[in-house]
Amino acid sequence: MRHTRAGFADYLELTKPRLSSLSVLTTVVGYFAARPVFDGALFFALLAGTAACAAGVAALNQWMEADTDALMRRTAARPIPGGKIATGTAFVIGWALCAAGLALLFARVTGGAAFFALATIVAYLALYTPAKRRSRFSTEIGAVAGAFPPLIGWAAVPGGDAALAWVLFAILFFWQIPHFMAIAWTHRRDYEAVNFPMLAVRDTTGGRVAAWSLACTFAVAAAGLAPAWLALAGHENARGHAGTSLAIIAAYAIVALALGAWFTKRALAFRRPPAGQTRETAARRLFFASIAWLPLQLAALVVLRLLA
Ligand code: HEM
Ligand SMILES: CC(C)=CCC/C(C)=C/CC/C(C)=C/COP(=O)(O)OP(=O)(O)O
């Protein structure tokens, strides 16, 4: 393939900047949720190392999927199929970023943080990316990869609260199902064209896609409430500054309930589109709700952990 000159925007696009930054944000949440004694140098290394790994896997994922990306409308203009960046260049950039990110996490953060970053890289590139072409469970496999980054942040803090780390993992895991089912329904013709055997391609009416999304939205709403329950249990053990902590826990529970109810409403509309709305419209609305729900829910969780 002939390559036209790549600019900064093409290299940036190779790192899937929006997805990667939200993933790094989940790592930051994992870190603060573990109630660290803040260490600026360690925090900077955590940010830079995780961002490098996220950008690196994005480049390697595009290197692995250049053929199918070229055939789908949503992805055809990406830097490799668009003829801006050569496959070999993407390969070198991808590995260099992953190696640099892992080395930084290992040397300047903790072995645990490097371990979970490596687990994310392996799960995304060695399990999820190949599974997309052959397994009907690829989305659920991908959701494991996408749920690891909070554990990178959590593992950066010695003695962090393990129960909360797994709640974060659950939030991220279940969140991804409605997030992706909505996308997959919108772009199902694209996925059909490249023979990806995912649920949205096999389900002709969208009924099963929507039912699975709704079930996982209930689960994510419940997981969003779990930190209030954990905080309450910790509060009873600790005693002490009672009033303020209880008020913050109650405020968190109200916010989590409201966010969960809103997300569930969008998932219900995807399941049974209201009059005047198609399942396509409901899918886009559910996708945007997913993108808004996650940062809001995670911000509430950090506030709860830092103040209660
Ligand atoms: C099974 C796992 C996941 C799959 C298959 C998936 C797939 C996708 C796809 C295909 C899009 C593009 C939507 C469009 O163009 O209409 C998208 C958008 C997005 N995803 Fe995901 N995603 C997953 C997990 C995640 C995770 C873990 C995060 C971050 C925590 C995330 C953050 C985003 C964001 C911010 C967008 C909107 C910006 C953009 O289109 O780049 N996703 N996702
Ligand atoms: C620290 C670190 C390594 C962070 C990375 C986080 C991570 C692995 C997120 C992956 C989530 C996921 C499965 C996205 C879908 O990609 P896709 O390939 O299906 O998306 P596409 O169709 O747009 O290519």
TrEMBL record:
EC number: 2.5.1.141
GO CC term, one of those recorded: plasma membrane
Pfam family, one: UbiA
CDD domains from the UniProt entry: PT_UbiA_Cox10
Keywords: Cell membrane, Heme biosynthesis, Membrane, Transferase, Transmembrane, Transmembrane helix
Catalyzed reactions: heme b + (2E,6E)-farnesyl diphosphate + H2O = Fe(II)-heme o + diphosphate
Topology with respect to the bilayer: Multi-pass membrane protein
GO biological process: heme A biosynthetic process; heme O biosynthetic process
Functional pathway: Porphyrin-containing compound metabolism; heme O biosynthesis; heme O from protoheme: step 1/1
Membrane-spanning residues: 21-38, 44-64, 85-106, 112-129, 141-157, 163-188, 209-232, 244-264, 285-307
Organism domain of life: Bacteria
GO molecular-function terms, A-Z: protoheme IX farnesyltransferase activity
HAMAP family: CyoE_CtaB
Family: Belongs to the UbiA prenyltransferase family. Protoheme IX farnesyltransferase subfamily.
NCBIfam families: cyoE_ctaB (TIGR01473)
Additional notes on this entry: Carbon 2 of the heme B porphyrin ring is defined according to the Fischer nomenclature.
Name of this protein: Protoheme IX farnesyltransferase
